[in-house]
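To start, an entry.
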Amino acid sequence: MLQIKQHFNLKPYNTFGIEALCTYFTEIYSETDFLELIQNTIYKTNQKLILGGGSNILFTKNFDGIVIKNNLKGISVISQTQTEVIVKANAGEVWHDLVLWCISNNYCGLENLSLIPGCVGASPMQNIGAYGVEIKDVFYELEAFDVETGDKRSFNLLECKFGYRESVFKNEFKNKYLIASVSFKLKKQAHLNTTYGAINTELEHMKITNPSIKDVSNAVISIRESKLPNPKNMGNAGSFFKNPEVTESIYLNLKLKYPNLVAYLLDNGNYKLAAGWLIEQCDLKGFAHNGAAVHTKQALVLINKNNCTGDDVYQLSTYVLQKVFNTFGVTLEREVNII
């Protein structure tokens, strides 16, 4: 039965571990729960926030409204051919659990996205990506509920308008849909992508010359664990900033000044700069503001080092933005959703 709690502490529900209260809180475990919820007066008359794994959000204040925790669970195969399979996962599934499930069934395509925190429902919202793979590369469709009417509709690849850490759900449809499930088109034969980042180096270190998708996943997990703090031990939301895109002329000017500049050529002729490298060059690794700090191993990550507030993290991020702009003339953008 649907339960709505009052004056609820969200600290266990965000990976920064920030103290924040919401006026109302509820959890949905089925589509029936959601359809019941939208008939409730509290739901109809309050601001709404849909929460998944809480891994890409920063609470800088209490939330005056109702928080809906999406706990829709289930993974299934909905169709397949000799070479491909469509896997459907409900939005409340833990992302890494889905990756491991696919690997255990030898379904290829998600292995580079191992150990990304959060739930399945957030993956298309952010168009999550790592080590040369993004959700748009394996996306098939998603199902979502209109948060006002409860009407359910499907979104295909084009309708999601995926960009770099962007989708239609972060722009024109922001806060308008609750994602119920996401379906992925995966391969039955491995097409490994090991050229991005340090995957090949890690595989060599593991003495693996003919890697499987499980080997690639293990390599990615090893790399991530060596760089990124576990939110269970140290509050964080993973990469706090997006890698900025600049024109060729800006890139060439920066390259003249900074020969070691880390950048990647894009299909459109622009260059994507490594935000972590830019932050590191500003001597900000380990820099702290009150209880918030820049992680010592990966400058893209801001951490809750000592019981900080969300505002402490936000002020630190502002300082980082200013330092990078003053040094390089490049504007960084926050990847994390600020509440």
